[in-house]
Amino acid sequence: MDSVYERALNEIGDNGKFQKRFDFIFNFIFTLLWAMAYNSMILALVIIPYSCKLPSKPDNISEFDWKSKYIPISTDAAGKTSFSSCQIYISPDENNATKECDAYFYNRTWYESTVPSENNWVCDNELNVANIFAYGKIGEAIGSVIFGWFGDTHGRRLAYISSLCLLVIGRFISILSSHNYILFAIGCIIAWFPSWTVEQSVTVISMEISAQERRSKITILRTIGYSTGMCIMPLLFWWLRDWKTFMIVTTLTQIPFLLFSWNILESPRWLWVEGKGKACIKELNRIAKVNNTALEKDTKDELLTTKKTQSIQALGPLSLFSGWRLALHTSLQLYLWVSVTLGYVVLIMSSGEKSDGNPFLEFAWQSVAEVPATFIGAWLADNFGRRYAGAASFSLSALMWIIIFFKEYGAGTWLDKWWVGSTLVIINRFSTTVSYYVIYLLNMEIYPTCLRQSGIALGNVFASSGSAIAPYLMYMARLKALRKAMRDGGRSAGAILFVVTLLGAVSVLLLPETLNATLPETIKDAREFGRRGDDEYEPVKMKMVSTVSKDND
């Protein structure tokens, strides 16, 4: 039976002008701009190709011979020769003794400047880049817990305002203190600390003021906005070329939303669950005014008298483990976050450092693949269910990783062609986007209203903790001294990601189907969600709904 809040939402319109306008402004435009501001540091920290700076070359000697005189040459396991990027001969005319480079030359074909090139974070100092990413991920993990609890106890709006403020402050600290490693790292941690709270807060608000059938549309719009931002971001850097200008431009896009953040809607569903009837009615009236509707007096009276107590909510995210069924659902979703994010971070970090082509176009093409993936993910989720859509996408990603595993054995064959690697990465990015889409839907539909943002934030904790490994894998892959070892390491990484992703496919099948199911409001609802034989939480088949509507007509 529908709650009084559901009745109130039906009276004011759960698919009206207000919802559509809110979604376009926040789930598309804002998400697009936020994606660039939040992820801009990925490109700003790219380590561009470099080598030791040499004396001026005479005109009567070739480039290769001049480099060979000063720089050691090594041969990898595939038989390919390359010059050292970090070593130079001390006395090239006397012996083969080497030392670290005194100065560096940077290939500025694509990047005019990045943070590592500006501060010479190369060779042994490349670890600075990995550490900053790791610090940021640890900050994300801690911040996810805090802001998830904050959003569920103090409201979606306040969580949105405070996290957006930290993003802007943190970015400007990093921009102004790039030559001070500690201050720069602090700025990165501050900006990443709220994690995805800003974007998730507006999505949760939208979900909680909309009809069931709009859930997929909301997630589609949000995902397309994010993917579009990720596609525009590298092209913007390609145009600006300088990391500081790029960071300033992307951060400034957040200022208008911060200035007008006081006017954003608070979730009336959250207010109702918290027993704040007057505030709930005030926000519902805002929606009704735009939708040209009105709340009935009896509904208002019932909203004012209904009190929902959630004493268990004081435990915060721990409440999601308060019953065996809810604990199982939570654990499975947390693993899905780790599985999909680990692979995704490896994909986007590697694309920004592509050295055999245009890294910006490579990054953009991969992001473009996310747009059709969103529509296909929505179609699969709405026609075959969330579980089967997720299982299919995770399985496809697992297939891509195992092919990458065997590709490492294919040096000198067609598997070693550049287009094979690019194709595998794009398909993998495609399937990963579908997986993200499904996980977002499951999080929104399985967690109860009183702990929905805490549940999503807890997923961010595990995702951030798992993805903190990726920067160190990238760091090790750059060490020339470990080139041969990393050929074996690359195969192991492909095999590990295959197993991790395949387990994700199994995990999503163990979750309850949520297609057209009623959102759980309380902890009790969430504990019973997905229980066999419980008609209240049995997902409704879309075709059955259509048939009933026609019969009633």
From TrEMBL:
One of its GO terms (cellular component) is membrane. Residues 25-516 form the Major facilitator superfamily (MFS) profile domain. SUPFAM superfamilies: MFS general substrate transporter. The chain crosses the membrane at residues 24-48, 158-175, 181-198, 219-240, 246-265, 334-351, 388-406, 418-442, 454-473, 493-511. The keyword Glycosyltransferase does not apply. The keyword Transmembrane helix applies. InterPro entries: MFS_dom, MFS_sugar_transport-like, MFS_trans_sf, Sugar_transporter_CS. Its main location: membrane. Keywords: Membrane, Transmembrane, Transmembrane helix. It comes from the Eukaryota. Gene3D superfamilies: MFS general substrate transporter like domains. It is found in: Membrane. It is a multi-pass membrane protein. Pfam families: Sugar_tr. This is Major facilitator superfamily (MFS) profile domain-containing protein. It comes from Loxostege sticticalis (Beet webworm moth). The lineage of its organism: Eukaryota, Metazoa, Ecdysozoa, Arthropoda, Hexapoda.
